[in-house]
Description:
Layout: H1 4-10, H2 15-32, H3 38-45, H4 49-61, E1 65-70, E2 80-84, E3 90-96, E4 100-107, E5 112-119, H5 126-143, E6 150-157, E7 160-161, E8 168-171, E9 176-179, H6 181-189, E10 192-197, H7 198-209, E11 221-227, E12 231-237, E13 240-242, H8 267-271, H9 273-284, H10 291-296, H11 303-326, E14 330-334, H12 342-355, E15 364-367, H13 374-389, H14 391-400
Parallel strand pairs: 3-6, 6-10, 11-14, 14-15
Antiparallel strand pairs: 1-2, 3-4, 4-5, 7-8, 8-9, 11-12, 12-13
Helix pairs in contact: 2-4, 3-4, 5-6, 7-13, 9-11, 11-12
Bound molecules: zinc ion.
Amino acid sequence: MRRLGYDLSMQFSQPSAARAINRLRILNLLASQENLSRAEAARLLKLNKVSTGEIVEALIAEGLVEETGKMVTVNGRRPTALSLKKDARAVLAVDLGTKATSVALSDLGGNLLRFERFPTPHNPKPEELCVQIIKTCLRILKMMKDPASAIGIAVSVPGSLDPSGSVVASAPVWGWKDVPLAEAISKNTGLDVVLEHNVRAMVLGERWFAASQEPSGADASMLYVNWGEHISSAWVADGKVIGEGSQFGHIPLRQTGLCSCGSIGCLETVSAGWAISSMAARITGKEDITVKQACQMLDQYPDLASLLLDAARGMADALVYASAITGCGKIILGGGISSMPDQFFAQLLRRYEDAASVRLSAVSIERTRLGDKAGLLGTAAVALDQFVFRRTMLDQLSRQK
Ligand SMILES: [Zn+2]
C-alpha cells in the first residue's frame, strides 16, 4: 500500500506511467501556484500543450482542479486560470504522541479544518489506543459535510515500522512489537492508512509547510531533533531521511539522574519533557506540571527558571556532539519543548557557541516555524503525499535522472 510509487517508477518508460507522472507534476504545480493557465503549466513543466490540456481536463473531471476565471496577458489573450480545488479531498492526520494524541482533518492545502486531542494513556496497550484513534477519526468523519471526500489517514508513531510501512515493528517507549496498526484502523474506518515514524513525518512537514531550505551538496546534511516528552532525531542527507532509530535522547551527559532507559545521566534526564515535569513537580509541590505550565509560573517559582536553563544547556551540549559527528550544516528543533520562551532558547544558542569549535559554530540552529503543530502538519503532509501528490516519489525520480 505504501510503496506504490516505486512500482510506478519501475514502469516509467511505459506511456501510461509517464502520463500518471505528468498528471502528478501538473497537480503539484497547481498546488504551489494559483491561477495558472494551461499554456503556462505546459511551459513550466516542459510538456506538450496537447497532453497538458488532456491531463488538465481529466483533473477537472476528477474535481481536483477548477477553472477560476479569465486572466489577461501582455499580448491581449485571455487564457483560463486554473487552481487546485483545496476542499476537493481531505485526509486525516493522527499524531501519536507519548503524552497526547492529536487528530486533525486537513484539506489539500494542509489547512487543519477540525482538531481533537486526547491524553495518550500511560503505557497503552495497542488495542486500547487503537479504539481511541478509531473513535476520534469516526467522530471527525461524521461531522464532515461530505465524508466521501476523505480519502486516507496517516498516523505518525514514536517507533520504527516494518518495510511494508503498515506495522509498528517496535515502539520501545511503550514496549510495542509488531503491531498491525494500519490494518486495524483501516478495517474500522474504511479508509486507507499509512504509518510513518514521527520524526520523519516532521521532516516532511518542514519541507511542505515551512518551506525551509535543506543544505545541499555532497557533504551537507541537516539534523532534525524532536524535543518533546522524549527526545529523538533524524538526519537528512542528500534529500533522504535516515537514522530515525537513533538514540539521541540517550547521549550520556551527566553523572547523575536515572533515565527512562535505565542508564544514568542521559540527555533526556536533563532536557526531556518527562524529566522537566517531574523536577518541576518537586519544586512547586504540584503533580503533572507540563513544561508549558512551568514556563507560566517562573515569577512564582524562580527555581523553575534554572531548571529550564539547564534543559536548554543540556540540549546545547548534546547538539555539539551531534554536529561534530554528523557534520550537518543545519539543525532544526521541533517538538513541544523547543517552543520554550526565547530567553532560554537564546541561552541554548550561547552555550552551543561557547562549546563549539569555529567549524561547528557555523552550523545554523533554528526552531521549526510550524510551532506546536509541527507533528500534526508533518502527519498531514505524509497523508497528502501518500494519497494525493506523491511528491516524495517525484523527487526520487528526478534525482535518479
Ligand atoms: Zn536514557
